[in-house]
Write a structure and sequence with these properties.
Low-confidence stretches: 127-141
Mean pLDDT: 80
Distance between the termini: 67 Å
Largest sheet: 6 strands, antiparallel
Number of strands: 6
Oligomer: single chain
Order of helices and strands: HHEEHEEEEH
Helix content: 40-55%
Strand content: 15-25%
Number of helices: 4
Shape: elongated
Radius of gyration: 20 Å
Strand order of the largest sheet: 1-2-6-5-4-3
Structural class: alpha+beta
């Protein structure tokens, strides 16, 4: 009886493993960072130091933004003539127009917010829970 039980447990674990693998293959990445890494061409020569990793696409910034936001809903989004700025909990995806399509910059929020604050202003908020008012009576009013 115990061999049979272990066989059933082993088969169940194998099935779960196969399902996870199928999900990973068909649904891609598990984060906005992974999505960008998997779907766009790496352009290391356009990196901003070690902070912002560069990728490119032949599509327009609005088309790239639509693809990314369809896959991963951002916490905040700011759009103006200079580009599309997407904020996630830990990462930012900044999509800028270039002659041949788009430059996509993938960067942690800790360095992206100071870099793009002059563009997005208060539009991005800051970190998790930034839209939640805190403090005592009358705070944030």
């Amino acid at each position: 009886m115990t061999y049979r039980r272990w066989f059933v447990v082993g088969v169940a674990v194998a099935v779960v493993g196969v399902l996870v693998a199928v999900f990973a293959v068909f649904y891609g990445s598990f984060s906005p960072r992974g999505y960008v890494e998997d779907h766009y061409a790496r352009a290391a020569g356009r990196d901003i130091g070690s902070d912002a990793l560069a990728y490119t696409s032949t599509r327009s910034p609005s088309q790239v933004a639509e693809e990314v936001t369809d896959a991963w809903q951002p916490a905040d989004e700011y759009v103006d003539g200079s580009g599309v700025y997407l904020r996630y909990d830990d990462d930012s995806v900044v999509i800028l127009p270039v002659a041949a399509g788009s430059l996509i910059l993938l960067e942690r929020m800790t360095t992206a917010y100071p870099r793009y604050h002059h563009v997005v202003g208060r539009g991005w908020g800051w970190g998790r829970g930034s839209t939640v008012r805190g403090g005592g009576p009358g705070a944030g009013k």
